[in-house]
Design a protein that fits this description.
The chain folds into 2 domains: about 5-235, Spore Coat Polysaccharide Biosynthesis Protein SpsA, Chain A (Alpha-Beta Complex), CATH 3.90.550; about 245-295, no CATH class. Helices cover about 35% and strands about 20% of the residues. It contains 9 helices and 10 strands.
């Protein structure tokens, strides 16, 4: 959503930013409502909503990579006890989606293929996918707690990502907002959509929005700033630790970044220089190999 009218400076009005940003926001909301009203392309939603009722559920948004789902399913089974793992597939291609469905089935993980996404940009597409899952699966399913994770983040030690919800309503990796101008002091923040956990009873009646809020400098998940995070004292929250490292010693982080969120390892998708993609892929496989060996086959 655009900033409040009182937050616009004179220079913004002279450039008609309130009008332009208001129009773009309205357009996105139309697309979002239309998308979450579309049926899943595969998977039994009625059965799945019954399956998650009263449970703790981790939902991964799969996208074009069957290997990540095969690895993630094994490692969550090994290291995250008492949690239902669900694959929500946002892949556009039928062949890739079929492979992801087979990987989920091999791991015994419930699978749903989302409608054909109405937005091609990765970040916007991801936000639409999260909102579809929230409205069509989580809200009617009424779990005890739920979490969203990226498809390329993996536990490497025993962990309960929901434990902190005993003392607060949400938990995860906190990301600060980006300033809208060079002289703005930013206090906005949000839970990164790749690792965020929520106590369902605390948010069930809120108008949650897991999309971006670029006009406030917030990436995917930042749409919840106004409705959920704005009035919370961040200094009193427990947050998941997060640190970025290079894939090889002596390499610049921005060339081939990897991320550790506590004991959760994040491969950070396609970020980095293409020239180092092969090095990064080898580093990811080397890090995960001993953990996958302990997890055993699917």
């Amino acid at each position: 959503m655009p900033p409040r009218l009182v937050d616009y400076a004179l220079a913004d009005w002279l450039r008609l930013r309130p009008v332009v940003q208001g129009f773009k926001t309205a357009r996105y909301r139309v697309v979002d409502r239309r998308f979450r009203g579309m049926p899943a392309r595969s998977g039994d939603i009625a059965e799945l909503t019954g399956l998650i009722r009263g449970r703790r559920v981790l939902i991964t948004i799969a996208f074009n990579d069957p290997q990540t789902i095969a690895w993630q399913a094994r490692l969550i089974r090994r290291y995250v006890a008492g949690t239902l793992y669900v694959v929500a597939d946002n892949s556009p291609g039928d062949d890739t989606a079929s492979e992801i469905a087979r990987a989920a089935a091999a791991a015994g993980a419930p699978y749903v293929r989302l409608p054909r996404n109405l937005w091609s940009g990765a970040s916007r597409s991801h936000g639409l996918a999260l909102n579809w899952v929230w409205h069509n699966l989580v809200l009617p399913g009424q779990p005890e707690a739920f979490g969203f994770i990226d498809d390329d983040i993996y536990p490497t030690a025993a962990d309960d990502p929901f434990a902190t919800l005993a003392s607060q309503d949400f938990y995860g990796v906190v990301r600060p907002g980006m300033p809208r101008s060079a002289d703005e002091s930013v206090s906005r923040w949000f839970l990164w959509a790749g690792f965020c956990m929520y106590r369902f009873a605390a948010v069930r009646d809120l108008l949650l929005d897991f999309s971006q809020d670029w006009f406030l400098g917030l990436d995917t998940g930042g749409g919840n700033w106004e409705v959920l995070y704005r009035d919370v004292d961040r200094s009193r929250l427990r947050e998941q630790s997060s640190v970025f490292v290079p894939c090889r010693e002596g390499m610049a982080i921005e060339d081939a970044p990897l991320q550790w969120c506590g004991s959760w390892f994040h491969a950070v998708g396609l970020m980095g220089r293409p020239a180092f993609a092969a090095d990064k892929a080898r580093a990811i496989a080397e890090i995960l190999e001993p953990h996958l060996a302990q997890a055993g086959p699917t």
